[in-house]
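User: Thanks for the earlier help. One more: Excalibur calcium-binding domain-containing protein. Can you show the sequence and predicted structure together?

Assistant: Of course, both are below.
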Amino acid sequence: MSSNSGRRASASYANCSAARAAGAASVYSGDPGYGRHLDRDGDGIGCE
């Protein structure tokens, strides 16, 4: 079993709505799909 909880390694999300729809929110820095544009407060956790 992979450590990315079933998320695709090449995942990327245009916004938090897309990440939530994919079941990927919250997304953490270093996780597939994380992008600074998803992390409004810069704490390393997007779409929290």
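User: Great, one quick takeaway?

Assistant: The chain has one domain: 1-48.
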